[in-house]
Description:
- About 45% of the residues lie in helices and about 20% in strands.
- It is an alpha/beta fold.
- It folds into 3 domains: about 1-75 and about 80-170, 3-Layer(aba) Sandwich (Rossmann fold); about 175-290 and about 335-360, Argininosuccinate synthetase, chain A, domain 2, CATH 3.90.1260; about 365-395, no CATH class.
Amino acid sequence: MKIVLGYSGGLDTSVIVSWLRENYGAQVICMAADVGQRGGVDSLAAKALATGASAFYGEDLRDEFVSDYAMPVLRAGAVYSRKYLLGTAMARPLISRRMVEVARRTGAQALAHGCTGKGNDQLRFELSFAALAPDLRVIAPWREWDIASREDAFAYARARGIALDGIDQEKLYSRDENLWHISHEGGPLEDPARQPGREVFVWTTDPADAPDEPCEIEVAFEAGLPVAIDGRSLSARALLAELNETGSAHGVGRADVIEDRVVGIKSRGVYETPGGTILLAALQELEQLVLSRSSLALKDQLAPRYADLVYEGRWWTPEREALDAMVDSLMARVAGSVRMRLFKGSVSVLSRRAPSSLYDLDLASFGASEGYAHADSSGFVKLFSLPQRALAAQREVDARRGRTETMRSGTAARSAAGVAASSVGPGG
């Protein structure tokens, strides 16, 4: 039996290689994806083979990740739990697809991952596998083995002589890194009342320590996709890398999020997404200039739906394809540039321009304009206020009816009192 394992070189997947061989008698083919994490995957081949893997595939997916996954999520305006820009979630369908491709190439019968039974990633991988390779068996060791903690995993590795060079045995935080973001979970962060310490953050400067002089940058877009910084055309990957560097220097992109995992557990994640934060802010400003009120409303409706789809691992679905088609249509004319100011953790807009702008300076002015006469609004206001006037008229009818009923009740009461008095004789 051949099994393709999504491999990171960390503690869990290092142990899983041995566990799969032991419990399934399998040849384990490790596949590691380079989506922009520090160190890449080149150094992992020797490590995977030393722990018992029969083969190793290191896949450079950086350009594809940014262009085909991060950018569509950006265009959709997808944000989960109000602040999470989906950096981990958007990488999983790409990694899953490449695992399936490696399985087909090598004749493997199964796919394996190191996700826990409490997390979201098990869904993201397994829904992708179900869509792309329903015939392949899926093995999730965390749902099968007796290893219950990090300490158990270290004990398992020591008992079998598994080398764990480079793995921090005192590791406090669980981190996931790619070109879009770096996330931090676990350890002291599990207490939502505890403030993240300085040691948590890896990319971004503390806003309090950021430069005292603001930085101004201009980002240009075509069809809702970023294409240039300060007039310099760049590839999607190079543009994101530059914004990550600039944003990090100015403390931009930190988010402390209480999120709802798909399995129903509330968890806390601390994220650093400097480039993504800048791009989303700039794109939303440009949309305000180009899209009509109803188009903006539609975009705001589909954005959280897209975010839920990505977060829950439903990337490989007709729903995502349909939403992408809607986004393509809405963003076709969203082109132009936005000038932004970065200062001590904040991002603010300074100016925006767009060839297809719906903003008409003549119309927007409070003064008289050639295309709009103030008197024209009289009929509009009268028609627009019809529901309010109809409601007011109905309330007046109800009030009159109420007064009439009150008068009738009073007359009836007085009549009843008169009858009662006449029925009581003299001296009664």
